[in-house]
Write a structure and sequence with these properties.
The chain is mostly helical. The chain has 15 helices and eight strands. Helix 3 crosses helix 4, helix 7 packs antiparallel against helix 9 and helix 7 packs parallel to helix 11.
């Protein structure tokens, strides 16, 4: 049974309570003690109550030894432990969340003293001050939700290893995420968009994204060995994100089985890719630079054969669209592709497989507003079939 003692310590300027706890003996049978200090303003019975609670926890095996490790120190060690278990892209995202959002706000708080109010303070700061490290504006509810979900995930490990008793992120009030209206391009806007992009390196990736619904990183990670022009199909097997620390292009494999997919392409896109390949071969032959030698046989590259950086393309695309008065992003091409398929009556399961969603429920959730009118179409189709059946019987 655990034991402890309380002693009042009279200092020159103040008094305090010193609590000595006898801990279970160490591996070599050595005596272990823990000394804790409480302010003298506390009454003795309050200190005695704390001691009783600690002794009960020690006997019950639930006591957690106080430590001075800060949240910042814990997250650093947590990241070192986990970065080899996730993709480089995910590890970099974790690093950004820690360094830019969490540590500047609450990183200096001891891990064991971190409470729900501290987490709520972090949320309020992100809502009003955004990225403190880079002096940015307020963050979107989506980003705030990601930060808190990440913190909850990391602190779950602290609970599992006995560093803390309870996850302080539980019950955090995250700003409600309002569903944004998805950007769907009209026929006129689609025509204007591609007229505007003609002649730029954005044109090809944009065309593939619009005709297939593929994501930007998937389009930029597409290699010629995954393009079957005769069979009119492409295989989505990898995504290109950016350069790694060695200056080499970083390719990642899709996270889910559904994201690795083979999809058909229409005659217009087949014709474009055939012509594009011929032009690319000409550029390769005439180039004097060395980038083509290590181009990884990418379908889309810069003029010198180097990979296209996704973020740079996305930013330039948005700038061009804003200047032209077209309210969309590069990802809007994917949304527009899905919209066209829905309006054409393509089954949601087929659409889900085509765009690489893990299951049709995701597609249904994202594009619910576009599916609202489909019930009317179903009623009309059923009525038409019944009418035809009656006519045949007459």
């Amino acid at each position: 049974m655990a034991k402890g003692s309380i002693k009042k310590v009279e200092g020159k300027r103040s008094t305090s309570w010193r609590v000595i706890i006898d801990l279970p003996k160490g591996p070599e049978g050595k005596r272990r003690q823990k000394s804790l200090t409480y302010p003298g303003m506390m009454k003795k019975r309050e200190v005695e109550k704390k001691l009783r609670e600690m002794l009960q926890e020690i006997d019950g095996g639930t006591w957690i030894e106080p430590q001075k490790t800060t949240l910042a120190e814990f997250l650093e060690s947590w990241l070192q432990e986990h970065e080899d278990t996730v993709s480089v892209a995910t590890a970099r995202k974790y690093r950004n969340v820690i360094d830019c959002h969490i540590v500047p706000a609450i990183g200096d708080i001891p891990l064991q003293k971190l409470g729900p109010l501290d987490v709520q303070r972090l949320i309020e700061q992100l809502k009003t001050r955004g990225n403190k490290k880079e002096k940015g504006g307020e963050l979107s509810p989506t980003t705030i939700k990601y930060v808190i979900r990440f913190l909850r995930f990391a602190l779950k490990r602290a609970v599992e290893t006995g560093l803390i008793k309870k996850n302080p992120t539980e019950g955090a009030k995250i700003p409600r995420q309002e569903r944004k209206e998805i950007d769907i391009l009209s026929e006129n806007e689609i025509g204007r968009l591609f007229d505007l992009l003609k002649g730029s390196y954005i044109y090809g990736p944009a065309k593939v994204a619009f005709h297939t619904g593929a994501r930007l990183t998937e389009v930029l990670g597409l290699t010629w060995d995954c393009v079957d022009l005769e069979g009119a199909k492409i295989r989505i097997e990898k995504a290109y994100r950016y350069f790694n620390d060695d200056g080499e292009p970083l390719f990642t494999t899709p996270k889910t089985k559904a994201a690795r997919r083979t999809i058909g392409i229409d005659p217009e896109l087949v014709a474009f890719l055939k012509e594009h390949r011929i032009e690319q071969e000409k550029a390769r032959r005439w180039s004097t630079g060395g980038a083509w030698a290590s181009s990884h046989d990418l379908v889309f590259t810069m003029g010198d054969g180097s990979p296209i950086i996704p973020g740079a393309l996305s930013s330039l695309f948005s700038q061009k669209m804003k200047k032209a008065g077209i309210a969309t992003t590069f990802h809007g091409l994917r949304h527009s592709h899905v919209s066209i398929l829905i309006k054409a009556g393509v089954p949601i399961t087929t659409i889900s497989g085509r765009v690489g969603h893990a299951n049709p429920s995701i597609t249904h959730s994202v594009y619910a507003h576009l599916l609202e009118g489909m019930d009317d179409q179903a009623v009309n189709a059923f009525a038409a079939l019944m009418s035809q059946a009656k006519s045949k019987r007459a």
